UniProtKB/TrEMBL annotation:
GO terms for biological process: transmembrane transport. It comes from Theobroma cacao (Cacao). The chain crosses the membrane at residues 47-70, 90-110, 117-136, 148-167, 179-197, 203-221, 281-308, 314-336, 348-369, 381-405, 417-437, 449-467. It is a multi-pass membrane protein. Gene3D superfamilies: MFS general substrate transporter like domains. This is Major facilitator superfamily protein isoform 1. Residues 52-471 form the Major facilitator superfamily (MFS) profile domain. GO terms for molecular function: sugar transmembrane transporter activity; transmembrane transporter activity. InterPro entries: MFS_dom, MFS_ERD6/Tret1-like, MFS_sugar_transport-like, MFS_trans_sf, MFS_Trehalose_Transporter, Sugar/inositol_transpt, Sugar_transporter_CS. GO terms for cellular component: membrane. PANTHER family: PTHR48021, SUGAR TRANSPORTER ERD6-LIKE 7. It is found in: Membrane. The lineage of its organism: Eukaryota, Viridiplantae, Streptophyta, Embryophyta, Tracheophyta. NCBIfam families: SP.
Length: 484
């Protein structure tokens, strides 16, 4: 089975019990059809797939805009609204709390009102949130706005990759799904860059632009045919599939496969959270949840949310450092998408974790030297080198690969509930790290990075000892290896 078919499963497994996005875990017979979709989907007929993907990834860009907002605005917001460190830490981290709620509710929403309906819901929350931030006169409306954008971000994290996977033909699914992660990084980077020249209120208004494009675009694209089939709207299902494959395409075989797959999925028993702790599932759960723990507690969201402040603290230009950081993040994430199926998951995780340790150590050393008035000329260079090595290393492996591995290791009957657990752990880690980061930096700036370095070093051991290589294996072979 195609490895990338399930990428979204990682980002998206935020949901329902055995409710698996209807395309992931494509049936073996669908994979054995040598280019059936290729034959029925010529380049000329795929314009609707590309348009639908473009509209959907506006949600991914919005996700990135929400995540990247707090870093370039920290100084201005704290000064304009006279916020304490604790109040700004709440503002920065409450985004991830909202995202946790959005992630939990996204699956039921997307199943009840459709993928397009879920995207409209997420967009509505983001619009309300940005407006609340723009008009904020104190901490409370600021936090309410941030919570609302976080909720929208959590819904987008599930529904966008699921929608793309459910509309794309098999031969394009991997490539189109990777655009989701690339657009998230682009949204973060654009917020970082334009945040260096715009006021914090104006930057909040720029978050409305992808929302407007998304809302307008949804009127011109079809609903997910798999969702329509699942709820029994047969005529609309066939019309949507025909729109996506081209008016002259023969969709009869693909439509029959979708119906068969949905019937198979609905016959599976619904898994419960306690089922995950059965011996046969335990190793899969340890791998999936463990990778999420190390991904988040290695410090990424603290550094991402407050990178401008880190550069300022080290005596380096916040605007220049942030721009370099933003560009590097997009470039390496794009390169990562091209090598993940060639290099393998485990090597990328190991190289990435080693780079994270190095980046944390360099940053820690720079703050140690500054705190003890030693080699002060070296401090900015070491800090910038450390942060750039850190984000480059994270983008090269630990950012995306845990989601890919998680999508591959869970059996289909527990994938929804196991993915929910792993994703909730991920969002909780994001909240915990983003909330505590400023307090840790106040306690000891170099100590903070040493703690993160130790956690990333433990991640290397975890990957070596526990995580299997899944490259080039079918999902059935992966399950056999895990349970051996």
């Amino acid at each position: 089975m195609a490895i990338r078919e399930d990428i979204e499963k990682g980002n998206d497994s935020v949901h329902e019990e055995a409710r698996v996005p209807l395309l992931q875990e494509q049936k073996t017979m669908a994979d054995e059809e040598d280019g059936h979709t290729d034959q029925t989907s010529s380049k000329a007929s795929l314009w609707m797939v590309y348009l639908s993907t473009f509209v959907a990834v506006c949600g991914s860009f919005e996700f990135g805009s929400c995540a990247g907002y707090s870093s370039p605005t920290q100084t201005a917001i704290t000064e304009d609204l006279s916020l304490t460190l604790a109040e700004y830490s709440v503002f920065g981290s409450i985004l991830t709390f909202g995202a946790m709620i959005g992630a939990i509710t996204s699956g039921p929403i997307a199943d009840f009102i459709g993928r397009k309906g879920a995207m409209r819901t997420a967009t509505g929350f983001c619009v309300a949130g940005w407006l609340a931030i723009y008009f904020a006169k104190g901490a409370l409306p600021l936090d309410i706005g941030r919570l609302a954008t976080g909720y929208g971000m959590g819904v987008f994290s599930y529904v966008v990759p699921v929608f793309i996977a459910e509309i794309a033909p098999k031969n394009l699914r991997g490539a189109l799904t990777t655009i989701n992660q690339l657009m998230i990084c682009t949204g973060v980077s654009v917020a970082f860059i334009i945040g260096t020249v715009l006021t914090w209120r104006t930057l909040a208004l720029t978050g409305l632009i992808p929302c407007a494009i998304l809302l307008c675009g949804l009127f011109f694209i079809p609903e997910s045919p798999r969702w329509l089939a699942k709820i029994g709207r047969e005529k609309e299902f066939e019309a949507a599939l025909q729109d996506l494959r081209g008016k002259d395409a023969d969709i009869s075989k693909e439509a029959a496969d979708i119906r068969d797959y949905i019937e198979t999925l609905q016959r599976l028993p619904k898994a419960k959270m306690l089922d995950l702790f059965q011996r046969r599932y335990l190793r899969s759960v340890i791998i999936g949840v463990g990778l999420m723990v190390f991904q988040q507690f290695g410090g990424i969201n603290g550094i991402c949310f407050y990178v401008s402040n880190i550069f300022e603290s080290a005596g380096f230009s916040a605007s220049v450092g942030t721009i370099i950081y933003a560009i590097l993040q997009v470039v390496i994430t794009g390169l990562n998408a091209t090598v993940i199926d060639k290099a393998g998951r485990k090597p990328l995780l190991l190289v990435s974790s080693a780079g994270l340790v190095l980046g944390c150590m360099l940053s820690g050393i720079s703050f140690y030297l500054k705190g003890h008035n030693l080699a002060l000329n070296s401090v900015p260079i070491l800090a910038v080198a450390g942060i750039l090595i850190y984000i480059g290393s994270f983008s090269a492996g630990m950012g995306a690969v845990p989601w890919v591995v998680m999508s591959e290791i869970f059996p289909i009957n527990i994938k929804g509930v196991a993915g929910s657990l792993a994703t909730l752990v991920n969002w909780f880690g994001a909240w915990a790290v983003s909330y505590t980061f400023n307090f840790l930096m106040s306690w000891s700036s170099y100590g903070t990075f040493i703690i993160y370095a130790v956690i990333n070093a433990l991640a290397i051991l975890f990957v070596v000892i526990v995580v299997p290589e899944t490259k080039g294996k079918t999902l059935e072979q992966i399950q056999a290896a895990i349970n051996a």
